[in-house]
Write a structure and sequence with these properties.
The chain is of the alpha+beta class and 674 residues long. Helices cover 55% and strands 8% of the residues. The chain has a five-stranded antiparallel sheet, with no helix packed on it. The chain starts with a strand and ends with a helix. It is a multi-pass membrane protein. Pfam families: STAS, Sulfate_transp.
Amino acid sequence: MSNDLPTSSNLGIPRIQIRRTSSDTQLDKVQIKSASVYNIHGLSGSQHSLSVPPIHKDVIGYRGSNEFILTDDKQSTMDQIKAIGPWFRRKCKNVCRRKILYKRVPVLNWLPKYSADDAVGDLVAGITVGLTVIPQALAYSSIAGLPAAYGLYGSFVGCFVYILLGSCKDVPMGPTAIASLLTFQACDGIWQRAVLLSFLTGLIELLMGLFGLGFLIDFVSGPVSSGFTSAVSLIILSSQVKDLLGITAKGNTFIEQWSSIIDNIHNTQLGDALMGFICIVVLLLMRLLPRIKVGPPDTCDQSVVQRIINKSLWLIGTARNAIIVVVCGGIGAAFYENGKQPFRMIGEVPTGLPSVQAPPFSVPEIVDGNGTVTQEYESFGDMLSNLGSMLIVIPLIALLENIAICKAFADGKPVDATQELIAIGVSNIANSFVQGYPGTGALSRGAVNNASGVRTPFGGLYTGILVILALLFFTPYFFYIPRAALAAIIIAAVIFMIEVRVVKPMWRSKKTDLIPGIATFVACLALPLEYGILVGIGLNILFILYHAARPKIHMDQAVTPCGVKYLMLTPDRCLIFPSVDYVRNLINKHGLKSQIPVVIDCTHIYGADFTAAQVIDTLIKDFKSRNQLLLFLNLKPSVGNVFEGADLEYRVFYDFEQLDKAIRECRRKSIQAA
């Protein structure tokens, strides 16, 4: 028999013909116990196989799916192995395409269109961010437990690399508060570990980008991210209290830090405490200056003097950290006499740029003048063991921070997480060759960048140049900067990272979302950070699994045109192994209670697995054992394939007319049997 397939245009195969290979020639209302197979020949000579499931022996309906499914002829294992070579060559050819090159090197997109207006915007933004990043780098290095110079070392090379590979104009690469705290917990103040950590995390980020693993951040939900960020903010704030009070305190976790602070609080230095608290108050007041507007709200209606005043207020408020550092450094220098320090100062900062060299793969042993070993030797293996899980946590958190900036200023445009991973990965690898520690984009600097009118990633060039100039010419003056002033800068910044504002809308929208958020917050305060965020992610996964294992089933009691009642049950999601026993019990419960035919509407079941097929088989046998009719409606072809692969005997329909006819026929047979 030869028939034209009426839907050939929809399948994309011109004028294909079907030739049946089984001995049966009738398709209408015939009892067929094995599937019919057709060979489909296109005019181009291509051949496909098409399977039509058999009709059930008792009811006029298809066993499985009544939709045509085109499948290529099966290949042998050897053919599949031989196909690897051509597949790999195609992938390599795709990588070398111009489209991929422009996507992975974004500078090729915007550089040919670069204008004078772009240059001016980038210059202003780059200098403004530079004035912000220098004092932040000095302060963040203390969070990382490293000398002040290492914060500056990690603040310029990444800016240059991001110009070439970055996809977001607002991201300013450099040290961040969270990355600095994670570095401290991983490296314990040993700079060799910190530099190696930068290299390895950059390598992991690069590999994650090349393998398209940016989706991993999707497993960190909003509540978990908020809980983690809030806990980290409190830990960072606590770590700076010791410098604010001029005391010595140690500890990795929130509890350890405050325990040490309480033990040493009697050693508080009045000068440091006074300067620190005054700086916090001044910084918070200066933060409000950009909101002050002189004259009409519309810039076009303002006079020249009013515009100058407004711009000056904005600049003072934006550069408040740099102003505090300069003023407090001047006070420290004025009161410094013959080695007597009125405040605890950051001390000597080496002049000049760091030497370009490979990251250290071992930690040398250091012995003091008395012959005491102050630092033990560590091999590369020992260093990897000490870094531990931070090699995974830091790349994920760095990506989270970076993507947060991209989304905040994307204006609805899509964010390429893969490209951002590649950019920050290469930046951290490059940083490790100039003795920098891990960094990423900082949201506070990103906001400054955006408010300054940045036009392209080229603004990072001026930020990097400003850091280089500071290293070349201003490091002798950094000696006089009080630690209390840097602590005040950090505290005034991180208090706004505590995300209290999300609690109220979260409570109103979905109260259960507070559970992983609060659990993450508490766990991060009580445990090391990597365990804290794992607690939050683990709880989220448990919630997802519970949700998948407990689908909702909508129940309707319907009546056929001839007056036969039946029960329509509609599950709202896929059938997978955690949920099928629950679904089976619910369907059995409703079936036993009603004792009428049951129809399962599979409209929303888009997938199933082998375990689901086995349980559905048991469900069918349950109904068969008590002579109760069980039918399926609108079963998807993919689900039908799973059921057929498990040799299920079931009845499926795709229109209510056939369904009603089947229920009526079974009702008639049951009456006759009685």
